[in-house]
Specification:
Shape: flat
CATH superfamily of the domain at 53-158: Umud Fragment, subunit A
Strand content: 15-25%
Number of strands: 8
Structural class: alpha+beta
Low-confidence stretches: none
């Protein structure tokens, strides 16, 4: 058995590590702590940035449904929105149909065609001849579309469906049973 050790020099009966082989434990642990702190700061920043609009954050995810934005977005596309509080004519926004209107609470993905002086917005689908009957205000708006992922909404919708949860539970149960059987 060979023992590995650090090269040392002996001066006046005192052993010292040679240059480049000295005590680095403290330096390594300091760097590990710095990296760990930076990692936690990054995680916190991601959580803050990804905090959903419905809970007071800025990020929203919406699955496009219907043909009113055909040519720009297709049914099943996933759009990510960022809430800014200031939307311009030409921006595509996602908003909740205001209370009292037909379909109240549903989300609409349409383009701003007019910004009114009272702070409300007129919107219209790119594949529609007429402006929407709803006039959303700032509290109704989830945000401006910043990213669209074609077809991803279809997969996301399936992943959160009851069938996906049933399949996940069945897979976990099967893995547990096989582990019990194999463990004997």
């Amino acid at each position: 058995m060979t023992l590995l050790h650090k090269p040392v020099a002996v001066n006046d009966g005192v052993a010292e590590s040679l240059p480049g082989h000295g005590p680095t434990k403290r330096r390594k642990s300091t760097w590990r702590r710095v990296i760990a702190v930076l990692g936690w700061v990054a995680v916190l920043a991601i959580v803050v940035a990804a905090w959903p609009v419905r809970f007071g954050g800025h990020l929203g995810l919406t699955v496009v449904s219907g043909q009113s934005m055909a040519g720009t977005y297709q049914s099943g596309d996933l759009v990510a929105t960022w809430r800014t509080g200031d939307y311009a004519v030409g921006d595509v926004i996602v908003y909740r149909i205001p209370d009292g209107g037909p379909g109240e609470g549903l989300r609409v993905v349409h383009r701003v065609v007019e910004k009114r002086s009272d702070g409300s917005y007129r919107t219209q689908g790119d594949n529609s001849e007429y402006a929407d009957p709803w006039v959303p205000t700032e509290p109704d708006i989830d945000g401006r579309v910043v990213v669209a992922v074609p077809g991803a909404g279809t997969w996301l919708t399936w992943l959160v469906s009851p069938w996906a949860l049933v399949l996940l539970a069945a897979g976990c149960l099967a893995a547990w049973v096989f582990r019990l059987v194999d463990g004997d």
